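REQUEST FORM: STRUCTURE PREDICTION
Request ID: SP-0412
Submitted by: Lab K.M.
Chain count: 1
Length (residues): 419
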Amino acid sequence: MHAIEKILAKNSGRDQVKTGEIVTAKVDFAEINDLYLQTVYSFYEMGGKTVWDKDRVAFVFDHYAPCPTINSAVNHQKMREFARANGLTHHFDINRGVCHQVMPEAGLIYPGMIVVATDSHTTTHGAFGAMGTGCGATDMACILLSGELWFRVPEIIEVRLDGEAPAGVYPKDVILSVLGRIKADGAVYKAIDFTGNYVETLNVAGRMVICNMAVEMGAKTAYMQPNEDVLRYVNARAVRPYEVQYTDPDFVYVESYHFDVSTLEPQLSCPHSVDNVAPLSQVVKDGPVTLDQGYIGSCTGGRTEDLEAAARILKGRHIPPYTRLVIVPASDQVLRECLEKGIIQDLMDAGGTITTPGCGACLGAHEGVIAPGERCITSTNRNFPGRMGSTEAEIYLASPATVAASILNGCITDPRKYL
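STATUS: Completed
RESULT:
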């Protein structure tokens, strides 16, 4: 069995599972974001009194942090009441950040676990050797009642990433190139196992970027064999012991794709689809692509390493008049680290606007939404019409370094000229 199958077997009390089977498995941790107040309503409608385990459930207020509307404030109010009534051990309010960042920081994510959240980008936690997946309000209410959920054992695809990335090519560029080949519907309800020597040496932040965007191919979950960097990260924060690592020396995948990252240049996902990917040089070959806004943040591109890459390019320089750069740290811990390193100061000196840690304008709610006719380059994860504001705006996805170099020039720019 593959590691994902072994995790499902362990949590469903079985010796073996097979592709296509439906199993009922125990959930090790459940998280509800502030879009899903319906979870609370459904819980009570099903006769719920208290959650199955107060140590294994958390709310994270990240999509509306702080609240931009009265309705979102009411959502938070009712969720706080539920958390307080159930005595939840873990609660992440508007001061903490994006769920996929704050849960690992709090030591709640570890190899061999099943984590389910009301957010599609829960695939992020495959970076730690966990099985992470998203669900809706009704399924989450079932978890809160029983601690279990049904799963279909997914087919498993291998995406092998080998080689050493050239200077100026980042994990975001790598996963965009994968998306451009496999496409947005290439892994629907399948699991993606990222393998290869590039993955083996990748740090935690880079792993999280790649696993995060597996869902943009339709993947149910993602997986990476934990490396030493992951084990150090988990052991430094562990709330509970984690399972022995699973290995898959002879597993046969339903499909395998191979990528040589050493051949890549910076990549862009162009309007209006995440799999509309092209090398940067091709995007600008017919002339400058002018920009109104740069955006660095979210669960894909708002970690310390991301802000640091942008600051290296922007330090001592300033963005042009009538453009803007919005920076949204992924968590309060990221913000503190960047303050201590002087990164925030460098970004502000360059004309950047720092906002509250969280999702920000990634979902088009607040903190940097864009107007009709505007063009934004962003380190976030989706670019369909209306994702960051107006349906008449254009969104380009890129690495934080490409975002920084581009907004510095007011047009899409190769970051390698600054490295």
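NOTES: The two ends are 44 Å apart (CA to CA).
Reviewed by: T.R.
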